[in-house]
Amino acid sequence: MLRLRTLLTSLAGVLLVAAPASAHRVHAGVTEIAVNPRTGEMEIVHRLFAHDLLTALDRDEQDAAQFLGTEAGLETVGAYAGERFRMADGEGALFDLSYVGAEVDGEFAWIYFVAPPPSETESFIVDNDLLAEAFDDQVMMTNLRFQSHVRTAMQGPGRRAPVRVRFER
Fold first, then answer.
1. CA distance 11 to 3
2. For a surface tag, which of 58, 156, 157, 158 has the fewest beta carbons within 10 Å of its beta carbon?
3. Residues of the chain with pLDDT under 70
4. Cβ-proximal residues to 15 (8 Å cutoff; 6+ apart), any chain
5. In the chain, helix, strand, coil percent, each to 5?
6. What is the rounded CA–CA span in Å between residue 56 and residue 144?
């Protein structure tokens, strides 16, 4: 009996030590889209785990803040996000997104784009493939805020197709 208790105690200790190493195993990101009332521009803000972004860019060995502190790092992140996030109006016409920049704050990378405001806000098509090529279980939640209403598009495992988001009048 003593031998079994020792084995179980040892196993519990190993599990407790291993738990922090697997603490961030969720692969999720959030995109927020809204029209800035001051500038009139549509702002698109992506929030991702910085180390996941570095994995997708094949830059695991680099520090995220240092990487985004360089012109080459900023250009790489902008090109990456610009290729993997698309947004269109209800008819399928793509918005022309302009990359503003990126930064790291703690464990998160923030990536910023702007676009001209939509002429109508009845429906949008969102295709948010950020990090999906790097992580099979990546989930991206895109929140659209227009006319004091919020709609959410979810994309993830088994749901990678573009999502139509409707705002009813």
1. 12
2. 158
3. 1-24, 169
4. none
5. 30, 40, 35
6. 25
